[in-house]
Design goal:
The structure is a homotrimer of 156-residue chains. Chain A has 156 residues and is mostly helical. Helices cover 76% and strands 0% of the residues of chain A. In chain A, helix 1 runs parallel beside helix 3 and helix 2 runs antiparallel to helix 3. The longest helix of chain A has 31 residues. Chain A is elongated. The N terminus of chain A is likely disordered.
């Protein structure tokens, strides 16, 4: 049976990723703040504000999925996927602040990573239910496979 | 004393509800994305965008209350209330995208469910404090009552 | 070694602060709702809506940092900082609804408290790693210092 207690040992990577994401949020918010104070061109402010809002809209979803995946299965791949997500988000934010003539990227981003983390949750719960009702525990295999599969997120 | 460790056993229903809510978020976001790309009528885009934003504004509140209620008292009624909340949210979102002539539903929704989950948290903490300082543990009674009370959420 | 299991004992203060923050969210949302229904002046509605949105944008960040700090180090200072944050947020919200002639406060608020909570997380993780790799555990000292330092948040 997989016990998976929430001790600092089991969550410290997730906490570190959460902290980095908070730093990034503050960085985004400061961009908005700075653009808000100098009202030179409104278009730039609108772009920063919209980029920040889209990132913030998706933030609770990301946090929830990452923590669930980390608690249900194993923290290392979840934290790794979280880091990749933060990089994607940074790129999305920067891409949003391009030239006015450029088209903006869409509303959604990081779909692949959210899907991967959701899959981790499902596998974790499935594995738990298998262990409970059939007495079979594939947790080690699953963790190895997940760790290997998380490397696929690095593909562009 | 109520131990309530966070093991997969104690949270897997909450994780499942969280996953469903994430799926719903992605569904909402894709609606916004699709409406954003075809700029036929701005009114429709504004409605979708506003509905999505209202749902996203309330999302962290919902997640926090559901997880607190699930951890402090018992997960089954909390997850059940979560499912009902997601149904209410779906109905709210669809209702928002009605005819332009129709009036939109308000900013708030699912007040009854949030209240129920908050009440569960308060009862859970109260029960814990009772157990700690007076040595009385009503957890089983409380869980039974909560389970029965959660059925009341089905009333329209 | 610091075990820090998530039992009700270790999180009930955090749950209480979360509940209060949820109450505050509902209060903010009801302000928006009320201002939305009477369309007397749009300026007032815009201000309430904007204040609420800024608060909601920062809410997941706050919750994540508070819970991480509470789980990694100790819950009492984290919950205390959370209460202070809620007071700052209340003041920010009220300040936003001032006269139209007044300038609004900026986009960010509560930076000092978020920094303090982030620092708590970092110290907690650092302390855990020290305990794991060097066998030294300063948790008691750190908790005392943190408790004392949290009083500094009361300074205006």
């Amino acid at each position: 049976m997989d016990s998976c207690r929430v001790e600092v040992e089991n969550i410290f990577l997730l906490v570190i990723v959460t902290l980095i994401s908070v730093l990034q949020n503050v960085f985004f918010a400061q961009k908005v703040e700075r653009e808000c104070s100098n009202h030179s061109h409104t278009s730039a402010f609108e772009r920063v504000s919209c980029a920040n809002r889209n990132c913030m809209d998706a933030y609770p979803t990301f946090l929830a999925v990452m923590w669930c995946a980390g608690l249900c299965l194993s923290q290392a791949p979840a934290a790794f996927a979280g880091i990749i997500y933060l990089l994607v988000r940074q790129k999305y934010f920067i891409g949003y602040l391009g030239q006015t003539s450029q088209s903006t990227p869409g509303y959604l981003f990081g779909k692949r990573i959210i899907s991967f983390l959701s899959l981790m949750c499902i596998v974790g719960i499935f594995n738990y239910l298998m262990g409970r009702y059939f007495g079979q525990d594939y947790k080690e295999y699953v963790e190895t496979i997940t760790g290997a599969a998380s490397a696929l997120l690095l593909l562009p």
